[in-house]
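Study the following:
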Amino acid sequence: MMKYMVDSLFRSDQSAPDSTGNSDIAVRMETGRIFINSMHSSNLPSQDEQYLAQVIAKRTGLSVTDADKRVSATFNIVRTSIANAEQSARQAADHARKTAAYSALWMFVSLLSGAFIASFAATFGGRQRDRVAHVGSLA
């Protein structure tokens, strides 16, 4: 959020490359920050949209109107893909929750049946032990 605010302070009408020649990277990073910041409100503010349209128009040679359409379309695609990713994450979390609940239930049933079988086997083994006839010593 802070980088977005700083970027908005230094916007200008000129897109001159910086001294290191990283203007393209800087503009792409700034565009990414604008999109990320706009995802919180689910719409692209008109100032940001106009700024991006001007930058895209200068970089691509498109008219400002066509660049504005491209910015809007791209933002809508990004917003839709994020919404789809959120829905997929919710579905995966719901599936994991259901799987964990079923696993816990079956673990309980298996432990309970194991305890019952162990108790039955102990009772049976104890009765078998008590039926053994002990022969006295041969001394």
User: Anything to note?
Assistant: The chain has a mean pLDDT of 82. The helical segments are 2-9, 23-39, 46-60, 64-130. The radius of gyration is 35 Å.
